[in-house]
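Researcher: I'm preparing a figure for a lab meeting and need a structural model of a single chain. I don't have an experimental structure, so a prediction will have to do for now. The sequence is pasted below. Please return the structure as tokens so I can convert it later.
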Amino acid sequence: MEEKELKALVSLLDDEDVQIVSHVEEKILSIGVSIIPFLELQWESSFNPKVQQRIEELIHTLQYELVKRRLNDWYAGEEKDLLTGMWIVSTYQYPDTELTQLKQDLEQIYYETWLEFRNDLYPFDQIKVINSVLFGKLKFGPNSKNFHSPGNSLINVVLEIKKGNPITLSVIYMLVAQKLKLPVYGVNLPNLFILTYKDEKHTQFYINAFNRGLIFSKQDIENYINELHLTPQPSFFEPCDSVEIIRRTLRNLIMSFEKMGEHAKANEVKVLLVEISDGGDLGV
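Model: Understood. Here is the structure written out token by token.
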């Protein structure tokens, strides 16, 4: 469709006839995400609040459909790369987020850590090096003051402000540790996402990225589970996969939006969660 036709189409968004507006919106949506830059230009040049609002809604719908498609493709794929999954989640709120930029940011953190890292250290000491760089030198830490901010679940925001929730801080920690060839993985503990160091020599301990990389034992987890009056499950102690991490990130995001009173966004993220949930589990 030529620009002249597109302009004529957008101009009809101001029509008083609801059916005409509905037809126009369907036509615009059928074009797909390629029309977004044009819609953004039309929004800037419009002085009609009603038209601007309708353009905003159309852009959001197109971007949301793109997030859904990317997430479905990621879930259906064999690789299920964790950073790619976290990037897709971030694009729900920040559509212009670039995966290449996230990779560059993480590469820089890895490089800062690699400068101080030594392969001949014991596992505990290797973890302490990562803790020193991430939480000391680079000043990453928990966003305790604004714990329920949606940004805490979005890796692009956490990489920028260096404050986040347990799962996003753990993901950054894990991606850096794995790039250093360390067997560090996520663990789906109730109410708190943590990490485990688990190698082939049966060395295993746990790391709390939300508490500056605090190292603790299996017994500590058992005590924690007892305090919550829960029955211990293998998943509380063993590594989880990338899909579980993305599901938990989405659940955190749902909870954040609900706490902020943004129920429409919470409902949209619930749909994303269902897309990658075997049984549609929406538990936070």
